[in-house]
Specification:
Largest interface: A-B, 37 and 37 residues
Shape of chain A: globular
Largest sheet of chain A: 5 strands, mixed, barrel
Order of helices and strands of chain A: EHEHEHEEHEEEHEHHHHEEEEEEEEH
Helix content of chain A: 25-40%
Strand order of the largest sheet of chain A: 6-9-7-8-10
Distance between the termini of chain A: 36 Å
Oligomer: homodimer
Structural class of chain A: alpha/beta
Number of helices of chain A: 10
Chain lengths: ~350, ~350
């Protein structure tokens, strides 16, 4: 089985620590290690060094090679441009199918925390077996621990195996409103969509055929271009892919999707508010992630998160429920309750012509 | 008349922009100019270059000469140590009496905003006349504009002149509680104590005699030491002064004090919350004081104050009523309502062995 790590994040969720050229997966959020490094290690141990791939975009390719010392450069697939997950998945599938026809492929995001690694490996192997069937797309679902509105959900259909961990997918449900999320999370018929998939080229393109013929055509064109070594044609076919997500373009419309209920710990680290899972809070609920020698000073303050890699000591006095991010060139103060909305700040940066900070 | 500028602030109120070695009067808070420079200019135009003095402490003397390019070095009186205002006033009085016996002296803080300068000069001249009487200490009172609890008050006695601007002082009132402040501010019998005084050596020492014989003895010893050029004796006498304020040691107990009601605009810039008087707020009440080229970005935020001289762009998103101070080595976030309490943060720094930040 080949493993494909989708590493093309836009760098907005952890702004200003994350940037276009330094997305979340570059941040040292896994015990001081970059998330991409942890993901590569976790995956390579299963798929092997020669069969581990990274898909990224031109803004991040250089940084990727720098961080991943020793990673095979020709297994870093650089998209001609950042273009959402459907083109990303199609490009990787074409490249791997050209190299190793008929291979099974596991696809996953670069910036999630997953442990223990053994459970992850076992489930992916289970997915590999299911994906041998040329008609089946396999996905992995996370049992909800709260009524999240920031994730898509997978509605379970019939149970497939006797162990109770594999189901037919009845349908994909987009990010729900709060009331719907409550209903989903309290039912045992829904799982969070982890964004991890297993399939082979045949089953993926079969599903594309029914769901998105334009994507299918571009995928076949990329395979042809790769097989004939025509980089210009590959780039052209990539740019012909619809700019959309693989969930929307393929998964939601596919007729043969199976979901495996994950039994590993999973966190997508969606915002600074999630950093509580990787660092211990003090007795007042404050979390300090110092990437410098300057120890932050948090005094008479509650439920604040400091992420500091700038040149200064961060001092909080008498504040509550704030996120403070200190980097070399920008410093953000945002309430914990608003940190999911940081994209609005990014839009403000664009309007203010502050490309230097994107 | 000689002018004495008391410039020995402890640098705590505007921390982290202010420090022990860089107190408030060094900050560029008067249209980008250091307050001490504005004070010197304002005073020198009245007293003349040869009769303008600065009293400061060893931590700040070097910085003072650096900022005040061209100020006569021998008119900077360096206290052997920081020791509150009574020793400061006594030392300056001794030095000036030794140089120019019988001279009148105006004493004032270095870090207040006062304008227009003409009104200030006119009132000081009025004070000079009153202070010709060897028994009279002259002080200046500010008509309260709100029920301040952070200032001492002066209770007015009988009117002295026919213009209605000069009164006998009935008594000094220490910083009141809120209810008392309300009563003081709504009565026309109280003025804020500006900390500006005019007297001569004879009237000052006469008042010391009745109020604080220890201070009187030290003052005479300093005069003798100065007259005989004995620096060691001068230092010793200074250290023998009670470590207390001139208000407490002398003014509150003096029997012949006159107050002149000020008709100039006065602001002591007591904390970051006061910066609204020197910079215009945007339509959401945000005030940005950038001492760098990096324009702060304040988005979806209200009533915040940013003081930035650090290397980064400060970005506020979705916050209210915060003060954010960004310097080269420290970064403070504090609610507007707590910025008068920054001394508690200073204490925390001391307990945390962060002398580097004091």
């Amino acid at each position: 089985m080949h493993a494909i790590i989708m590493a093309g994040g836009s760098g907005t969720r952890f702004w200003p620590a994350s940037r276009k050229s330094r997305p979340k997966q570059f941040l040292p959020l896994d015990n001081g290690r970059p998330l991409i490094q942890s993901t590569v290690d976790r995956v390579m141990a299963l798929a092997g060094k020669d069969q581990t791939w990274i898909v990224t975009n031109p803004d991040q390719a250089d940084g990727m090679l720098e961080i991943l010392d020793g990673f095979p450069p020709d297994q870093i697939i650089v998209e001609p441009e950042a273009r959402d997950t459907a083109p990303c998945v199609a490009l990787a599938a074409a490249v791997i199918e050209a190299r190793d026809p008929g291979a099974t492929m596991a696809v996953m995001p670069a910036d999630h925390l997953i442990e223990p690694v053994e459970a992850f490996h076992a489930l992916l192997k289970q997915g590999e077996e299911l994906a041998q069937d040329n008609e089946t797309l396999v996905t992995f679902g996370i049992p909800p621990t709260y009524a999240a509105t920031g994730f898509g959900y997978i509605e379970l259909g019939n149970q497939h195996d006797t162990l109770g961990s594999t189901f037919q997918v009845l349908r994909f449900r987009e990010k729900p409103d709060q009331a719907t999320a409550q209903r989903f999370a309290s039912s045992n018929q829904f799982l969070w969509n982890s964004g991890i998939f297993v399939w082979n080229f045949a089953s993926l393109t079969r599903a594309m055929g029914g769901a998105n013929p334009k994507l299918l055509a571009a995928t076949h064109a990329m395979l042809d271009a790769k097989q004939s070594g025509n980089q210009a044609a590959l780039d052209q076919a990539f740019r012909a892919c619809p700019k959309t997500s693989v969930d929307y373009a393929v998964m939601e419309k596919a007729d043969r999707v199976m979901v495996i209920r994950a039994n590993f710990n999973w966190n997508d680290l969606g915002s600074f508010a999630a950093l509580g899972v990787i660092a211990e809070a003090d007795s007042h609920g404050n979390i300090v992630l110092n990437q410098t020698d300057h120890e932050a000073l948090v005094h008479q303050s509650e439920r604040c998160t400091v992420y500091s890699e700038g040149p200064q000591t961060v001092a909080l006095f008498g504040v509550q429920d704030l996120i403070v991010v200190n980097t070399g060139d920008a410093l953000l103060v945002v309430p914990r309750a608003r940190c999911e909305d940081i994209k609005e700040m990014i839009e403000h940066l664009k309007r203010s012509n502050r490309q230097d900070l994107l």
